[in-house]
Amino acid sequence: MTDHPDWIAVDWGTTHLRVFAMRGTTVIDQADSPDGMGTLSRAGFEPALLRLIGRWLDPRPDARPMRVVACGMVGARQGWAEAPYRAVPCAPVAPGELLIAPTTDPRLRVAIVPGLSQDDPADVMRGEETQLAGLLELQPGFEGCAILPGTHSKHVQIRAGRVTRFHTAMTGELFALLAQQSVLRHSTADDTPDPEAFAIGLDQGRAGQSFHALFALRAESLLAGLAPSAARARLSGLLIGAELAGLPDGPLALIGSGPLVGLYRAALAHLGREVAAHDGGTLARAGLALAAEGAPA
Amino acid sequence: MTDHPDWIAVDWGTTHLRVFAMRGTTVIDQADSPDGMGTLSRAGFEPALLRLIGRWLDPRPDARPMRVVACGMVGARQGWAEAPYRAVPCAPVAPGELLIAPTTDPRLRVAIVPGLSQDDPADVMRGEETQLAGLLELQPGFEGCAILPGTHSKHVQIRAGRVTRFHTAMTGELFALLAQQSVLRHSTADDTPDPEAFAIGLDQGRAGQSFHALFALRAESLLAGLAPSAARARLSGLLIGAELAGLPDGPLALIGSGPLVGLYRAALAHLGREVAAHDGGTLARAGLALAAEGAPA
Asked: What are phi and psi of B288, to 5 degrees?
C-alpha cells in the first residue's frame, strides 16, 4: 500500500478521541470516537486507538512502527500513561521530552505530549500546550495572551517563545452546571442568541457582579417574564465577563472552534479588544507535527 | 379528646414538609416527611398533609375546622395554590393577606403565607418572610440586616418593621454543584472542618477572587497534595466570602440552624462583624403564630 500516513496525530481528551492520518502537515484522513480518557481503564487505551487507526497501519511484518503522537488527558494520571507536567516558564512543547506509552502491538510507537504546570498560583493544562506550540509554528514570534475558551478556559501569557504564566477559569463548566442543573435551568432553556442580553451580562460580569447577579435571572423570569433566551445569554455574559475581567493589555490570540469562538470574539469586541482567531484543531495538529519531528523514531 | 392543638404550623419547602401541633406559641407535637413541594402534584398536597396531621384532628362531625397555617414553596406557582408575592417595602407578613388553599376534607382550613418580591433588582423569597416576621415578634424594633444562609442565601434589610430591600445569593447551590458535580469533586471529598483554609477562602472571596480561585483548588490538589478537607473548606470560604462581600454596616441577625450557622458565625467573626444568631425553626413558628392570629377563622 502506498497511502499509509507518515504519522498519526491524536487529540485525546476526557470525552473524545480524534485521530488524523498525516502526511507531513497535511491531513489525508481522519476519524473520531467517544472513547475519551474519562471512559477508559488503563488497558482500554491501546484497543480504543487501534479501532480507529488500524486501517492506516502497514500490515507487513517488517514494516517500521507507525509514529503516533498524542496530546490531552491521555497523559493524565488516570490516562494511558502519566506524562509528568513540565513547569512554566518553558516552551509549550519540548519534542525531546515526550513520554513513550507502553504498547503491545509492534506496529505502534505512541508518544504523549506532557502538559504544563505552574506552582503559584497553582495551575495545570493538558492539551492546550500543543495548540500553543502550533500557534508559535504558524505565527512565529507571537507575544501576548492566548485565550482558549472551553470547559476550563485558559489565559496564557507567551513571551520569547515560552509560556511565562497562565490561568484557568471554570467558565464552561460553571455555565453547564448552572444552565442544566441549578434552579436557573427553569429560566434558561432556550439557546437562541441574544447579543443585547449577552452584553448586559458581560458588563455585570467584568464589574465583579457575577455571583450577585445570578439569582436575579430566576427572579426576573418569575416576576417580569424574562425570556429564557435572554436569561441564558445573560448567564453566559456574566461568566465570560468575569473570566475576561482580568485580561492583560497587549496582543491577544483566540484559539478554539465552533460557536464559543464567536461568543468570545463578540465579548472581546464589546470590551474594545481586537483579537486574531485561530482554529484549535489546526493549531493542535501543527503542534503535534512539531512534536512528531523531534520524537524518537 | 382534650389534647387537640389550637392550630397547626406548617413549614413546607421544596424538599421537606414539617408540621407542628401548636397550643398558642408552644409546640405540643411535631412530625415531618420528605413530601416537599418539588415531589408533589397539585392534588398531592392535601393527602400529604393529612398523612402527618390526621391524628391531631378532631373527628367529631360538628368540630370546627382546624386552622393550618403554612409557609414556603407550598405557595409557589407549582405548589398547592399560588399565593402571589407581596412587593417590598412591606411588613414581612400581613396576617390579613393569607391565601386560603382549596381543600376537600371539611376538618381543614389551610392558609398560606405569601412570599415577597422586589422589582429592581428582581428578587423573590418564599418562607424566609415568615422567619423575618418571627424575628420582629421575638426582637421587636430590630433594624439592620438579617442573613438567612442556605441553598439560596438571603440578606434582608429591615427598617421600621418592614422589609425595605433584599438580595439572594446562590451560595449553597453553587457549593453543592461544585463540590459534588464539578472537576473539584475529586479534590474536595472530605468535610472535616479546616478553619484556616476556610479563612483563606473567605479573604479571596470578599476580594472578588472567587471565580478566579476555583480551579486552583484542583491544581493544588494535583501538584501540591492539597488535602481534600482544606480544599473543601477553601471552596466554602470562597463562596461565603463572595456572598458577604457586599454586607452593609449596621446590626446583623443570623437566622438558621445546624452547621451552616456556625460557619457563617465564624465567617462574620473573621470579617470583624458581631452577630446575634436565631434558630430558624423557632422564628418560623413565631411568624406562623402571628399569621394564625390574624388568619380568617
From this structure: -65, -35
